[in-house]
Amino acid sequence: MSTSWTARVRKATLESYKPEDLLPDTQPAYVASWIYIFGVLTIAAFVMLFATGLILTLEGPAWWHGSGVGHYFNSMHLWSVELFFVFMVVHLWGKFWMAAWRGKRTATWVSGVIAFMASIITAFTGYLIQTNFDSQWISTEAKDGFNSIGVGAFFNALNTGQAILLHVALLPLLLGGIVVWHIILIRRKGVVPPILNDINIDGGN
Amino acid sequence: MEVINMAMKVDPSVKWAGPTRPYDLIKELVIAVVVVCLLAAGLSFLFSSPDEPAVSLKSWSNTNPVDFVNTATSELAGTSTSTGYGPPYNNAVKGMHFGILKMQDWSGVRIPINPAKSFVLDPLANYNDASAQAAVKVWEAASPADQNKWATGYADALGKAKDATQIADPSNMYGPVPTIVTSLLNMAKGGALDGALTTSDSVLPTNFTKPLLFLADSEGYFAAKAEEQHLGGEQWGVMNETGSWPGQSWLWLFSFWYQVEPFKSSENADTIVMLLMGLMTLLLALVPVLPIIRKLPYKIPIHKLIWKDWYSKKL
Amino acid sequence: MHTAIINLNHPAHYFNFGSFSISAGNLTIIVSMIIIFGIALFLPFPKSHSDKK
Predict the structure, then answer these.
(1) Distance CA B42, CA B181 (A)
(2) C41 CB near a chain B CB, below 8 Å?
């Protein structure tokens, strides 16, 4: 085994995946149901959140209160959140009823749950930085939940500056990283075969 | 017509070697982004988004001065929510706990706030009102027993009067408290208190802890405004949005626990609910290994709808 | 200022079932998810003529 760090990273990453597995142009013939579109729709909503979020960063947090254009992009950002969670939950329901964790895909399922929770936390920091009454109320209520488990001493919901930096910098990076990990796991293992074709399942077991 | 797709038994951990179909991943992603963009644009055009204007100490003191003076007096009397909160603001009480898990206490006082000093006395000490500054000096020179007597007496008098913003004090029963509270009201009405509280720690503020904690001590104004919008804790408020817009329906389970016993009336409700939601999340992550739950997809065969084309396909 | 076609800037209508209370907006979102899930299960999926056998 080479002691070169570069060689080791290359072997663990580039040499572990075939390009045609990462960006395939075929898929198993059983991937033929509308339920399969909800993962990519969730990603698409995430892309929209990123794009509309970037536009909102251009003019700062208070822009949208006084600008019609700003308010419209705030609306697009908010409706993208609603679409994001709708698609993610339908995706979750589909994956559950497919028992998509089969065939050593437990990590894929777990990374999905982590992505779900990270999304909720990221969305929460977004609600905190609206700089209107809703954000004032949410911050004063949420602080009680965080304080009750000791987290409030480190994450102060009433500190708008902290919330902005978390929402715009740290959390999108973290969430993006979790989503990339989730997708790599799917590309690595492939889409789970149907339950009736699973050699480990015998009549409902 | 032989249906043999269902007969193919494979190890799901091994790469699929059976029939495939063409798939354009990038095209699918681009179409998805275009579709979601159009949906978001359309929904925004139809419904826009809520923007209930922020409140301030100025709006509070002008809209509900009675509630403002009652709250300010409670800060001096030490009976406000902030004063008796516990960590991370002070050590007035023990924090919430669940059995031996006392995380609120363990976190310590890392955001020290003395409400009477921070919200009332310090702003007035720098306010350009000689009588207010003198009253603050009288308060600070007094014994804790006198301070408590004056403040609780004034709080009781205000409570009895119901709609008063000031109580006359010819026999000086309440010491400097009436002057302090009335001066604070005037300071707030003019807008100077907002600036004083937000710039007390930093000249260019991004941290609104002090004015928000002071507002949160208000029951007749801040909490009442929230309840009008159905945002209160006992109204499933965690899920709701101002106006008629949809809110955060994904928080339904978190909100649920607060509506039912034993959580509803527990003094440790927040700790218990947070820990419970942590447990729910862990259980969701562990679905692949949970007995009964992990077999539900086999017992209730919704998969036969998902893969109906594949299962019935002829070769 | 952008004015919405449908004005939602008024108190929401709430549906109450015992201690359960939900806004019309949230209920619409949840019902939509269930309908979308149902449609995804039942809507026929187009067959590709170039499916490899």
Answers:
(1) 51
(2) yes
